[in-house]
Specification:
This is ATP-dependent 6-phosphofructokinase. By secondary structure, the chain is of the alpha/beta class. It is built from eleven helices and eleven strands. The protein binds adenosine-5'-diphosphate. The site of adenosine-5'-diphosphate (ADP) has 17 residues, from helix 4.
């Protein structure tokens, strides 16, 4: 393979730039050319394709977001859109593609691979919800952003002796809430993977209060319900007044952590190696601290499992 393409797609995540840099530098190191595709699959259809040299990915390893921009593209879900995309890549002499994104982006990559155009998926999403990998690029940065917010909210919660409900992202995965809840010392974590017991939550709040706890932090994953709904529940059932904080899009931005940059570098490089071997339809991931590659179908047929030992432990530690 002499020329490859790279794009970022779906929701952006900190560390996507570090992955892009790794793809470009690794490929050039092995005497390949790299074309950058702007705006995800939309840009592929529209031919927003430019050559990337070593310098074009300089000074981005530390930047959040994605230099190639991202987009959601309905047309690409159609056969016609996919054929247009392949046509564009042929026109530019591109023989293989690295797709950095979430599971939706993987489906697009698989569609191209099924049509004979090899693609490799690199998991970039703050949600950590891609089956087959222990971690995705962006999760660690988002987690640290949430922790910083929890620490700040805790200061005001303590000063005013308040119960705070903090809503975090994660779509249908509770990972961000779980890890943030444990690391932030939250009294309660509410995640989609575990049904919550309101009575249990209330009795924990009461017993904490009785032994002199000055505040309580409840982390609610967006996949369960929004924080205002949860606040209503507590008010209705126990007349508990709470304050709500919805962290929102700050979780998607910011300088990637060292851990995300290392993950992105490892994943980007492995993706290029797979294309060099002439392989397609694979996803890159991390399992037990080892970089792995596996069939992309596993990534959307499988189910992501949150680590529920964290859930159990956080309950034990927040008595
Ligand atoms: P993410 O990659 O973060 O999960 P999306 O689910 O929005 O984000 O997917 C990103 C893009 O991938 C979509 O806008 C679309 O262009 C493409 N895509 C998603 N699902 C499919 C599919 N089933 N077939 C082809 N392309 C898809």
């Amino acid at each position: 393979m002499k020329k490859i393409g790279v794009l970022t797609s779906g929701g952006d995540a900190p560390g996507m730039n570090a992955a892009l840099r790794a793809v470009v530098r690794k490929a050039i190191y092995h005497d390949m050319e790299v074309m950058g595709i702007y705006n995800g699959y939309q840009g592929l259809i529209d031919g927003k394709i430019v050559p990337l040299d070593l310098g074009s990915v300089g000074d981005i390893i530390q930047r959040g977001g994605t230099k190639l921009h991202s987009a959601r593209c309905l047309e690409f879900k159609t056969e016609e859109g996919q054929l247009k995309a392949i046509e564009q890549m042929k026109k530019h002499g591109i023989e293989g593609l690295v797709v950095i994104g979430g599971d939706g982006s993987y489906r697009g990559a698989m569609a191209l691979t099924s049509k004979g155009f090899p693609c490799i998926g690199v998991p970039g999403t703050i949600d950590n919800d891609i089956p087959g990998t222990d971690f995705t690029i962006g999760f660690d940065t988002a987690l640290n952003t949430v922790i910083e917010a929890i620490d700040k909210i805790r200061d005001t919660a303590t000063s005013h002796e308040r119960t705070f409900i903090i809503e975090v992202m994660g779509r249908d995965a509770g990972d961000l809430a779980l890890w943030a809840g444990l690391a932030g010392g939250a009294e309660t974590i509410v995640i989609p993977e575990e049904p919550f017991d309101l009575e249990d939550i209330l009795s924990r709040l009461r017993s904490g209060h009785e032994r002199g706890k000055k505040h309580s932090i409840i982390i609610v994953s967006e996949g369960v319900m929004n924080a205002n709904q949860f606040a209503e529940l507590l008010k209705e059932h126990a007349q508990i007044e709470t304050r709500v904080s919805v962290l929102g899009h700050i979780q998607r931005g910011g300088t990637p952590t060292a851990r995300d940059r290392v993950l992105a570098s490892l994943f980007g490089a492995r993706a290029v190696e797979k294309l060099m071997e002439g392989q397609g339809g694979l996803a890159i991931g991390m399992r037990n601290h080892q970089v792995v590659d596996y069939s992309m179908t596993e990534a959307f047929d499988g189910k992501h499992e949150a680590d529920l030992t964290l859930y159990k432990l956080s309950k034990e530690l927040a008595i």
